[in-house]
Amino acid sequence: MATQYPKKKCGVLGATGSVGQRFILLLADHPFLELQAVGASERSAGKRYKDAVRWKQMTPMSERLSQLVLRDCKAEQFQDCDIVFSGLNSDVAGDVGMETNPIAFDHCSRKQWLIQVHFLEMEFIKAEIPVFSNAKNYRKHPLVPLVVPTVNPSHLDLIPHQRKEFGLKKGFLVCNSNCAVIGIVIPFAALQAKFGPVEEVEVFTEQAISGAGYPGVPSMDIVDNVIPYISGEEDKLENEAQKILGSLNAGASAFDEQKGLTIGATCTRVGVTDGHMAFVSLRFKNRSAVPSAEEVAQAMREYQSEAQKLGAPSAPKEAIFVFDEPDRPQPRLDRNINNGYTVSVGRVREGQKGGYFDIRFAALSHNTVLGAAGSSILNAEVAVIKGYV
Ligand SMILES: NC(=O)c1ccc[n+]([C@@H]2O[C@H](COP(=O)([O-])OP(=O)(O)OC[C@H]3O[C@@H](n4cnc5c(N)ncnc54)[C@H](OP(=O)(O)O)[C@@H]3O)[C@@H](O)[C@H]2O)c1
């Protein structure tokens, strides 16, 4: 099916980082997304990729990639690209105030906002190059789809409205969610489709070191240790799911967030290289027909997302893989199921009798694949299939 789509030339911004390297691996051999250009900071621009990068992947880089010359992350240097994927840090990707202060969006008209803000990702969309971003800056912007490809690819249908509001013809901005959020919203989507709204969640995460980029957390801090705090992370866990699980209005011009979904989060960093674990307790809104653990596991096994139904080439066979074994999932063993595009779930149990929560489970997601580069690529595939690129 995938071969029917025209080839699209892709650039990767932040190509030397943890997420950037993962983009490059996932784009190798892609049926219609071709790696055309790589960009990084001024420190790296002008160097051959192999001389600038600290390659930390298990697969060696290809000869072609090793010889690619890194470009400055300037839109005029990526005019030969149909799409760019951004693995840029948030301080260069966009306006840092935007994600925490949505009111700031109202201080200028939406179009003025686009013209006034001079950050890298904005520069690209203004140059009519679509951007798929992993940075946090614009996730909560009312005109920016926040898409987890196996949950809400239908939110991409706001793109024509975004273009109209921003005065763009081809450019647009689509964001991925936070890497730990992705691992919980996929199971929530499966459960809500079958049993109605989830109302209250308590989640505890154990997040991998690669989530902090490279070199990330110093080894002296993380070996033989758990760090019970990740700056800014709990806020994202508590506030991004409502937009992802919400709906697009009838005119495809605004998102209605899922109301009444309350999430409490505790995030920790552990000495695992890749793969975030999330331990979830949840309560359904409908008190009259609370599902059993068995029904919950079955609903997750049966879940099929729109990305899968559309035949996107990177869509996993199972959006959720459910283990019966009590000691799974484990990051080292299970993070690469379906090339890292699947969230694996285990320990599905009912809550304590008479207790507050209905269901408990553990979820594992590969933070640089499903949690970052892989989701961006899958979002781009869906955008191509839907004709937005
Ligand atoms: N790591 C994860 O699991 C994960 C998951 C989801 C989302 N994210 C988000 O993805 C983004 C990238 O994360 P990461 O972990 O890959 O970070 P990283 O390893 O620190 O990589 C950052 C990249 O940005 C480039 N860069 C830095 N300053 C720049 C500038 N002024 N101009 C152009 N390029 C610049 C770096 O290039 P040089 O090599 O030249 O410095 C490098 O390629 C962040 O916004 C992060 O929050 C990360």
UniProtKB/TrEMBL annotation:
Semialdehyde dehydrogenase NAD-binding domain location is 9-159
Name the Pfam families for this protein.
Semialdhyde_dh, Semialdhyde_dhC
Question: Does the keyword Amino-acid biosynthesis belong to this entry?
Answer: yes
Matches recorded under CDD domains = ASADH_C_arch_fung_like, ScASADH_like_N
The source's superkingdom equals Eukaryota
* Listed GO biological process terms: homoserine biosynthetic process; methionine biosynthetic process; threonine biosynthetic process
This protein's UniProt keywords: Amino-acid biosynthesis, Methionine biosynthesis, NADP, Oxidoreductase, Threonine biosynthesis
What does UniProt list as catalytic?
179, 276
SUPFAM superfamilies, per the entry: Glyceraldehyde-3-phosphate dehydrogenase-like, C-terminal domain, NAD(P)-binding Rossmann-fold domains
Q: Which InterPro entries match?
A: ASADH-related, NAD(P)-bd_dom_sf, Semialdehyde_DH_NAD-bd, Semialdhyde_DH_dimer_dom
Gene Ontology MF: a single term: NAD binding
Answer whether the UniProt record assigns the keyword NADP to this protein: yes
| NCBIfam families with a match to the protein in the record | PRK08664.1
Q: Which family does it belong to?
A: Belongs to the aspartate-semialdehyde dehydrogenase family.
The name this protein goes by in its record? Semialdehyde dehydrogenase NAD-binding domain-containing protein
